[in-house]
Amino acid sequence: MSLSLEDARRAYAEEIRAVADIQCDRLIEAFAHVPREAFFGPGPWFIGTGSHMRRFKMPAPDERAPWESDYRATRDADPRHLYHNVLIGIDPKRSLNNGQPTAIAAWFDTLEPQLGDRMLHVGCGVGYYTAVIAEAVGPNGSVLAVEYDSGLAARARVNLARWPNVRVVEGDGATIDVGAFDIGFVNAGATRLMPSWLAGLQPGGRLLVPLTIQVLDTTNGLTLLVRRGGGGERWEARFTGSVAIFPCHGARDEASQAELLKLYRSRAMHTVQSLRRDQHAPDPSCAVHLDDSCLSTLPPN
Question: I need a labelling partner for 252 at 20 to 30 A (CA). Which of 29, 77, 154, 288 fits?
């Protein structure tokens, strides 16, 4: 490899900018400076081949473990292997990966991070993308990183020690008190917006949540972007794109999945304009009606 590590990081960041059309320059600078290799232990590393995303897989040869057909090992421990738009296996045996850089960057960009923002990151994994967003909100901003898996939370706490504006909490991000925040990203598939997330989102704040249907061991659906206005009972809400992601512990139930499935089957997702938090009886404007919130075709107010 002819590029220096610094040049490889810069090329990686600029490729993310080009592929995902990232508008926030601070995000690109963060991708160019945060050392990805520092979050995954010593190499060689496992790179996702893409077959882990298929619903049905060809069986692996007898001499290999089933998960091995989903990954390839880097040739050596040169960290420059990691500076590409690829998935890195955190725990390949569980098909647990560090997310696709362009996808995560695009989701962060949708949130329009500003210097000084307070960020909620549910499902932080080992903390790589938490570090990226911590750089983007700057030293006067802050990030609450929540991770349900105790092993991942412990790794994230060590990995993120050099970012004093990050606090890592082990727990259920669907139910703990997350406090007040300006931007929020849930890195797992939910079937509903949890009350703690909506209570913590401040006026002018943005929240991105994958709303997904369970299919085998993953969940598929669409990301929902919620923007809270300064007042009114209906906040701006719209679906922004497709997603396949691990399920979010504590933020799924059969009733809300059934409502979500009806919406997706009707292909009327584009009609959703707002999130209603007021108590009301179901009516024709309710695209997904739940007791504590409703995705509505009415405009925000």
Answer: 154
